[in-house]
Amino acid sequence: MATQADPHADAIEEIFTTVAALAPDIRDALPGRRVQNDETNPSGETQLAADIYADELFREHLGALDSVVEYASEERTKIVPTDGEEDTGLSVAIDPLDGSSNLKSNNTMGTIVAVYDAPLPAAGSDLVAAAYVLFGPITTMITADGDGVTEYLVDDGVREVITEDVQLPDDPSVYGFGGRVPDWPDDFTAYTEDIESDDSMKLRYGGAMIGDINQVLIYGGVFAYPALESAPNGKLRLQFEGNPIGFIIESAGGRSSDGTQSLLDVEPNDVHQRVPVYVGNDELIEQLEASLD
Ligand code: FDP
């Protein structure tokens, strides 16, 4: 995994500060943006007006930073070159509103940010930082900068540290698996039965990856959006979801996998490529990799 290179420390901090500062605007805009927009995003999903609003806001503010040379979003087909300094600039890939289908039912959603020291599409090993904002009952932010994971409360757009050096607990207790159960391959179904047979483990699944990941970080456990019979690469995207979440979970002492290798080692070939995502406590991901053949 990449570690934070000193030359990027200020730039990473500036990106995190910008994302946190926009959180109140995004939260305030949600009540009036629960309707669907006619357009579909590059992955073929219907966009909500909230997705488009958040994407525009991040492009405007992150794209204006000297430290950012490329902006890519799950909501845009193309990578947007920005005016940052080419020699030292970083590439930002963002999922402006992960779990936006939860807006209608008023459940958790969030914003995911990946900061790469390479042109996009980039490998997880090129990440220098990743973060997410969670719009739950309160707004929190998790950051990883190669030097540890920190949880913040975001109050009026300003971060206040809740926990430094966040680590996955040693005694995992929750699991959440996405996709339709009949669409799961047999080997993954066998793994889920092993997990369910452990009476210390409890199913908790909210349908927004970022919320389901956050409970794994806080309680310990495993999250999967697996390869499906109908979609061998699963649903989630490598640049916007798999890589940053893999980086955060590995930075917190856990493990990530696409079924055979760390998510951070997956070869990037397209900005919107999908990847099966498995993250959680080390032993649970080891058990998963042994179960999948
Ligand atoms: P959403 O479509 O609501 O934005 O990748 C996006 C995502 O949500 C994830 O947050 C979530 O884990 C997954 O899709 C859920 O998708 P399905 O309900 O189609 O399984």
TrEMBL record:
Binding site for Mg(2+) 2: D95, D98, E241
Amino acids binding substrate: D98, G99, S100, S101, Y205, K235
Protein name as catalogued: Fructose-1,6-bisphosphatase class 1
Domain spans labelled Fructose-1-6-bisphosphatase class 1 C-terminal: 168-291
GO terms under biological process: fructose 1,6-bisphosphate metabolic process; fructose 6-phosphate metabolic process; fructose metabolic process; gluconeogenesis; sucrose biosynthetic process
Enzyme nomenclature, EC number: 3.1.3.11
Known cofactor(s): Mg(2+)
Organism: Halogranum salarium B-1
